[in-house]
Amino acid sequence: MSNWYLQNGKNSDVVISTRVRLARNIKGFNFENKCKNEDKKQILSKIEGIVPALGYNLQLLKLKDMDNLTKLSLVEKHIISPEFANSVDENRAILINNEENICIMINEEDHLRLQVFAEGMAIEELMNLAIEIDQKLESLLDYEYSEKYGYLTACPTNVGTGARISVMVHLPGLAETGNLNKVLHIVNNFGMNVRGVYGEGSQSMGNIYQISNNQTLGISEQEIVKNMKIITEKIIEQEKVARKYLGKEQVRFEDKVYRAFGILENARLLSSNECIDLLSDVKLGTDMGVISELDDTKVKKLFLYTKPANLQKYCGKIMNENERDMKRTEIIRQIIKE
Fold this sequence. Notes:
The chain has 338 residues and is α+β, with helices and mostly antiparallel strands. It is 48% helix and 16% strand. The protein has two domains: 4-242, 2-Layer Sandwich (Creatine Kinase, Chain A, domain 2), CATH 3.30.590; 250-337, no CATH class. It has helices at residues 37-54, 68-76, 82-86, 123-140, 172-177, 180-189, 221-248, 250-266, 272-287, 296-305, 308-315, 321-337, and strands spanning 15-24, 59-62, 93-96, 102-106, 112-119, 145-146, 150-151, 163-170, 192-195, 208-213. The protein is globular, with a radius of gyration of 21 Å.
């Protein structure tokens, strides 16, 4: 089976991916920002000891044993955070399975950041999986928990359920029709965060945004799921209305997406940022049935293997920026012809 980020999911024309994350801390240790190295080492050792009993085919990988390219490739897949990848803390590690749809970051902002991923819209299914894994973890570890507040975390905004649901959405229709800011403003007013591709502080690229809940205290996991489903379904609905409007000007729309496809297919030098903007138009054209030369799987491969680190992993060699910009165009033609 292919990794989750190369699979097709529900509403994947608009929702690129879904992630559910639970923040947890182990009783008897300070939170990460005040945790001494010796304590972090103990936390890592404690978790390493429960891996066989945890199951899910998880294996423990220490960041200090990973090369920078591997770490950056995981960031590009949105499996670990940029801050986590850039850390020089030797006690940081991940528990990850072969499909990479389960990844637990160890000694990040919290002692444990349990994450599960899926392509397309899979909010309910992922929350169920996250709770299942969490209950297994809780049977093997003592969590910091308050009867009054719930799970205690390093950042007050995660206290309570410690649950954060994020959906990655592709909104070129709303951007093109000039309605994007209006919709994102409404999302903010409903108590949701709107962020760029790589989370807090990052910018949107290729009309891709992360929508996530910002309330974890005084609300259950089921209520978070319900609210996120309502918001996501509204975003999908608005984006599809915008796309229908774009489709009315058929010649103009076809010209725009085929121009992007033509550059991708024929360019000999392409930067990463230019590529993702072109891919945004090409994905829209493919999803709307205009570009018949591509399918969902090819589009997913194009998005993944044109990113700097994953491009180098795909080719099996380290390259400088200019070499990547040349090789990127070769990879694009190769995937299109598959």
